Input
Amino acid sequence: MFFTGEVYYRYDEKRRRMDPGYPRPIHTDWPGVPTRVNAAFRFHGSVFFLSGMKSYQFDLRKNQVVKVIPANSWLGC
Output
């Protein structure tokens, strides 16, 4: 996935093209995630979104943000 502005794109690596129906608004599919996403990664059933000075943990089963922590927490700062 690629996040830019208020939308995101889903890329199919096998077909080497964007999936049909994209871009889609971030707030539609990722409720609670800010529209400015600097980076995202998946870890143990969650997607973590880094936005500015915060990190948002999005639980894929609950389809919601379950925790917001300082972004530099990942670095042990």
The radius of gyration is 13 Å. The chain has a mean pLDDT of 91.
